[in-house]
Please model this.
Amino acid sequence: MVSTMAAQDLIRIHKALSEMGVSSRRKAEEYIQQGRVKVNGHPAVIGMKVNPAKDIITLDDERITVFEEGRKVYYAMYKPRGYVTTLSDELDRKTVADLTKDIPVRVYPVGRLDKLSEGLLLLTNDGEFANMMMHPSHQVSKVYRVTVAEAVKEDQLIALAEGVEIDGKRTLPANVKVITKEEGRTVMEMVIREGRNRQIRKMCEAVGLTVKRLRRTMIGPVKLSMLKPGEFRELTKGEISALKTMATKNLVRDEQQKKRESRPKRDLKQKTAANRPPRNNKGDSYGNSKGNHKRY
Model:
């Protein structure tokens, strides 16, 4: 097994946990202070040095292994407002890469959140997974909490739900509901299955609504949960599997729908004629001679 650290290296425990892909160094210190980290069966102490290749390090009594080169990783992050969803920026703005320095491998964002938006963002080094999540045919659902400045009217809700035209193309149907109404603002929950550029903001603008705050709270089954702005965590195996399953099912359903829509539609008159019983030349369609219908 090839690892990112030499076997003879002794490093501080919080750095070891970070380089092994467990958490950021700051979060690792919290785990240690909470007594959740042990080294060779004994509680870890902040500042102690360990050899990750030889020492048995556990978190919540589960052994942590040395990070392997080439391993695919999947993270959920709370992207704060003010950060752009890129790894580098020519305008020298803050990027999500500034928040992922403690992740031991290079990861990149799956999809985007604009600079003024916040909330759940997936990060990975798995290109196939990223493409599956972003491709429109997979229609992975995304849930947003949207605060607008106006009182939302019923016709605006209907328009958002049925689809509006942005950038020359109509949006797919969405699930939209009002969470709270207060003077000077309305909070909505919007669920969409696309990932077009600034889609939520443009949808609201199309119906005359001004977005004051936009936060993504879910992607498929993955929730923002208790993450705070700037924090991240690794996805569980169950979450990764559920995301892939959702994307695959949606793709199959989309392909089946396209096949149904591509079938030639038969003329209603032709279909009715095809289902009608054959007519007897000497009488009606049931074989009775003209003028000789039986009465019961």
